[in-house]
Amino acid sequence: MFQYEKFLQYPVKIAQPNARLAKMISTQLGGPNGELGASMRYLNQRYAMPLRELSATLTDIGTEELSHMEMIASIMTQLTKGLSAAQLEEQGFADYFVDHTTGVYPANASGVPFSAETFQSLGDALADLNEDLAAEQKARTTYDNILRLNDDPDVRDIIRFLREREIVHYQRFGEALRILQDHISRNSPYPDDPYALNPSFDAAEMQRAPRRRRR
Amino acid sequence: MPEQSLDTMERDDLLRLVQQCSFMMQDLALYLDTHPTDKEALSRFMMHRDMYQQYADAYAARFGALCKKQVGGAEGWAAWSNTPFPWEKEAN
After folding, report:
1. Which side of chain B, N or C, has fewer Cβ within a 10 Å radius?
2. Model pTM?
3. CB-based contact, B19 to chain A, within 8 Å
4. How far is B3 from chain A (nearest CA, A)?
5. Domains held by chain B: number
6. Across the strands, what pairs with A113?
7. Domain containing B24: what range?
């Protein structure tokens, strides 16, 4: 289960409203490489992990992504607060405004609503962890693009923090993949073909394999 | 440990200590998930967990509950429901 803690993972305190920037950053809430998709990806994939430490990694990173989702929504809220309809229009926000006023809605930067098609849960730990590694790099690139496009010091500080977390998650997923590969090479009855079995779906068959001594 | 007493510290400073300890716990947790036998990382996790508890309780007693478990003072339920939400600028 999940319980709420009433503070942000990293403080969001933005002095200068900027609706144009809010729209750009909104893609990290509901876009293809955003925090909502990241969280849903990991929290849904974790049930199929054949090793508990892999489920732990997905649970803990997936939960952190929920905190990042809240930070992005907080940035959007503060960047659009106190602006008149005319100012919002002047700052390129009219198309968002007409559908959502200044409410937080998960969509990409061009307004396309969030889609679960932006992630997979394949029930195969090898495929899922490889997707997770790619996802962290894609999110890192998106944050780099946001950093290229704005010079607000308050926002840049928060985006740099989030960008750094993508790199840490990438590192942890790399270790998780190595743990899984070691498990397959030790326990699969087909040592010459690491892809012979689905390590999640065929978990029982992997456990039945004769235990070979570690080299 | 900060030099100033937790009973007189500014709200922002105390919140920052809570956030820092919470973040250390999160980062160490991810590391421990893939390095579960690392004793030094585990002891650092437990150290920050203890500090987090102390700071969070000191914060809750003066400025409102950070989680529902902390509700119980004279303010009643409002200590949870009627303090600033994290997305408000003044909450940070």
Report:
1. N
2. 0.95
3. yes
4. 23
5. 1
6. A107
7. 11-82
